[in-house]
Amino acid sequence: MAANAEQPIEFFPLKQVELIDGPLADSLRLNRDHLLQYEPDRLLAPFLEEAGLEPKAPRYPNWESMGLGGHTAGHYLSALAATAAALDDPQCRERLGYMVGELARCQQAGGDGYVGGVPRGRELWEAIAGGQLQASSFSLGDRWVPLYNLHKTFAGLRDAYLVAGNEQAREVFIGLCGWCDDLFSPLSDEQLQAVLATEHGGMNEVLADAAAISGEDRFLKLARRFCHRALLDPLAAGQDRLSGMHANTQVPKVIGFHRVGELQDDARLRDAALFFWRRVAEQRSVAFGGNSVSEHFPSDDQYQRFIEHREGPETCNTYNMLRLTERLFAERGESRFMDFYERALFNHILSTQHPEHGGYVYFTPCRPRHYRVYSQPGVAFWCCVGTGMENHSRHGSALYAHRGDELFVNLFAHSRVDWADQGAQVLQTTRFPDEPRTSLEVTVDEPKRLVINVRRPAWAAGEGFAVRVNGEPWNADTNAAGYVAIDRTWHSGDRVEVDLPMQASVETLPNLSEYTAVMYGPIVLAAKTSEDDLDGLVAGDGRMEHVAAGPLRSLNGAPVLAARPDQIAEKVERVDTDRLRFRVADIVRPDEYRDLELIPLFRLHDARYVVYWKSAPAEDGADEQMAAAEEAKLALDRATVDRVTPGQQQPEAEHNFRGEDTQIGGDGGQSFRNASGWFSYDLNPRGEKSLTLQVTYRASDDRGFRLTWNGQPLPSSRARQRREGDLRVVEYRLTGDEVAKPATLRFTPDQGAATPDFVDVRLLRREDRPPAAVLPGVNADPHVAFFGDRCYLYPTTDGTEGWRSTSFQAWSSADMVNWRNEGVILDLPRDLKWADIHAWAPAIATKNGKYYYYYSANKNIGVAVADRPEGPFRDPLGKPLVSARDYRGMQAIDPMVFVDDDNQAYLYWGQGRCKAVPLADDMISFDPAQVRDITPPGYNEGPFVHKRDGRYYLSWSEYDTRDPRYSVAYGVADSPLGKFKKAADNPILKQSGKVRGAGHHSIGKVPGRDQWVIAYHRFRIPGGDGYNRETCLSPLRHAEDGAIQRVDVFETVEPIDLSSLNGE
Length: 1064
Fold this sequence. Notes:
Blueprint: E1 10-11, E2 17-21, H1 23-35, H2 40-50, H3 71-87, H4 90-110, H5 121-129, E3 135-136, E4 139-140, E5 143-144, H6 146-162, H7 167-184, H8 189-195, H9 203-214, H10 217-225, H11 229-236, H12 247-263, H13 267-283, H14 304-308, H15 315-332, H16 335-349, H17 383-391, E6 400-403, E7 406-409, E8 414-419, E9 424-429, E10 437-444, E11 448-455, E12 466-469, E13 472-474, E14 483-490, E15 495-499, E16 504-509, E17 512-520, E18 523-530, E19 560-561, H18 565-568, E20 573-574, E21 582-583, E22 588-589, E23 598-600, E24 608-610, E25 613-615, H19 620-639, E26 640-644, H20 649-654, E27 658-667, E28 670-683, E29 691-698, E30 705-709, E31 712-713, E32 719-724, E33 727-734, E34 743-749, E35 758-765, E36 779-787, E37 790-797, E38 807-813, E39 819-827, H21 828-831, E40 839-847, E41 850-857, E42 860-866, E43 896-899, E44 905-909, E45 915-918, E46 932-933, E47 941-948, E48 951-958, E49 967-973, E50 981-982, E51 989-990, E52 999-1005, E53 1012-1019, E54 1029-1036
Parallel strand pairs: 7-11, 19-25
Antiparallel strand pairs: 1-6, 2-8, 3-4, 4-5, 6-7, 8-9, 9-10, 10-15, 11-14, 12-13, 12-15, 16-17, 17-18, 17-25, 18-23, 18-24, 19-22, 20-21, 26-35, 27-28, 28-34, 29-33, 29-35, 30-31, 30-34, 32-33, 36-37, 37-38, 38-39, 40-41, 41-42, 43-44, 44-45, 45-46, 47-48, 48-49, 49-50, 49-51, 52-53, 53-54
Helix pairs in contact: 1-3, 2-4, 3-4, 3-6, 3-17, 4-7, 6-7, 6-9, 7-9, 9-10, 9-12, 11-13, 12-13, 12-15, 13-15, 15-16
Domain Glycoside hydrolase GH146 substrate-binding: 635-764
InterPro entries: 6-hairpin_glycosidase_sf, Beta-AFase-like_GH127_cat, Beta-AFase-like_GH127_middle, DUF4986, GH146_SB_dom, Glyco_hydro_43, Glyco_hydro_beta-prop_sf
EC number: 3.2.1.55
């Protein structure tokens, strides 16, 4: 006896399915505790704000405050409803009732049935009612996917009623649907289809559900009109045009196609849904049941991206695929749907919940040796947080189903189903997947003939599958649907035992056969490779912190299985009889990975892992080629500071996409954006000071374009271009204020045409080689000055142990790049009577038509005078200007003289302490009584003063020249004698990479311009040290507030024709 196969199959309500023990039960209970950590009033805040009511608590951060306010609350309602039903949980039920009541209050305040958290929602809906339809893939009327957002409210209210029995939720839901009908029914089909170009969730499904609940046909008519024909028509024609599409935008639409087709008895819609499922579940999904790379369906020739990309399958997709699978199973009753369901549930869904704190996962990378990140309550509010809340509250949804007198046992979990309609209960006892068997114990009110259909999984198609009833073998042949039908009269205590032989097997990645996943039965096995560099493992509230942004590990260094795919399964050895643990030591390479242990993916957390293994490595030559290409990709990833993928929702939303007359597209799995008008992104240098802007577009597209950076053109003369396959890469070196703060990059076409199709935009950290020193040989402590139409450098002659130099030279340049040696300008043994060694750290100033040269000699400070900056210089005093014994606790070295706008000169000097004093008008004397100590915190040596916009800047070197902490810091004052307040953003110059010992500087202003340079020394490259240093010259930049920006030691000055500046 069996029911009519034409009858629909129904799943049991969650309140009739009890999860007792095992991974599904553990997940449900953990999720319940996790849900209760959220504050309902904070989730409700966007709704109250939009209703003009006072919120009881501030809204949550992250996506809830970034344009998607309210989306989480809808998911939360669904999750509370499911948890309340599944666990008969009064706290969840009470919380659900409170939230529904608050939403009803918001709806009542509006007066027209609307309730939602969409920012400035009523303004948007009024514009749509007026025919203002500004729609793109992820924006409608400048709002981030508002119908997608609102769909969550519809669905949450529906579930609160259908799943948890909340009658008030029904009233609010039907009222909201009525508002929706009033808004959208007057639109023409063409207008409504234009609206549907923006991601809108499953609006067709919830409207169809409203028709079923209320009996109002208008909702079903609107649901039909909400079916997006751009997706529906190709699917109904059996055409897969999914490549390049945003994956999770499509799945909810298809669920709605099926629901509308069910209620209207329209086979075309139902068949379109089935075709979609077959293409995605059977052709486009990876071993653990997920699909998409970076949220998009790749084309057949782009499946390598699964292995290369850090953004693997998205959890939301699988959530929706399971819901679609439930619908198709209910219609068709075939075991293949539950085969997929089991795979996706036990491998993907279970793996996206942290087993301790309950956080949810957005992307599950397939890339070997990458990792996943987890949400935390109150902080992260991604879409996959919302679906995550639901995923782990509805594990009992598809375990069992019924049709008339037939029971379907679909999945294997320790659980009990209350088949109240038949006066029966079935207790299933199993430790699946750790043991390959399950048992069913039947309890009936009275003996009754029923059919219990036990699914025979595809993975148990071989020998060993067996069914016993009360210990006696039962015919294990399956029916056409893939189930073993046990048709008999049942008595309480009757017992069914099922052996489920699980064996190791492999599954290659679709369209990329060299990568293989190892499975045991339906369970995907993974191996932990390390626990290092798990950046952002528990995500903060940043817009894109759902991405595991830590460093990628080279694919060439990943463990491989040195065997053909058909040889791997026999090498899989189980090493634990209690839990699933395996080894494949004999074929794992390299040897450092021989001891890797394979466990179920859903049990692997907080680690880098391998789920797809490369097998049968390529020939040596191919390996070398691949290694070089892989290293280039890793270097690009390491250098990337910020990135936008044009045409993709999350990256564009994160970067504040704006535009007019702009289009997106995608083929071959690669998205793009172009514009006949314009579009822009906001990019963030993230504190980096040395960056390159890189934009990439299709090489076949020769249309011109223009770029502006914060409104300033980036001329093509600054661009460096190259071709990479079918792409063209253009790079602009950004300098100065261009990288001082976040900036807007704007794309426009050239001369009215459309722009090319842009596929990638990046800010790259420049890892430049150190520039060449500006002077030949070894020279330290350089002082830079501009006189006339030339730039001068006055350094210490370096290269002697103990800094035993005895003379000074000068250098000059007409462009700051090509330098002329002006020869020795002061020779201590020849020109002085009081010192003959330790010629250090000179400085120069001009006044009264003369040039005054200050220097250290034998740890005293002297002064020399000349008529020209090239000398010759003479000693006017015949003695030190400052003697080594004049001031205790410091060395009398490192002089510097600053001449203010009023022609008053000031002398600064000292190592250990910093002294300052006004000089007499003769520039060679001062009043000792006026000497001040102006030592700032951290000061060691090399003071320098410059003035800009009325502010005085004292800069100095900290630590010793041989100390790795040697650096330049600065402070600011309103007087040349201080008090100088040390700036917060210090140091401004320090060693980096191969540039070591950078410091002891001077600063010069290019005549006629607000353009500054800094001269400093570094250890000679290669082989330098504290006695062998060389002179460098780099740009020095001030921020808008006057702060000195950090100096890029890998940047050298660009040539300037100084003679051309006389007129500036």
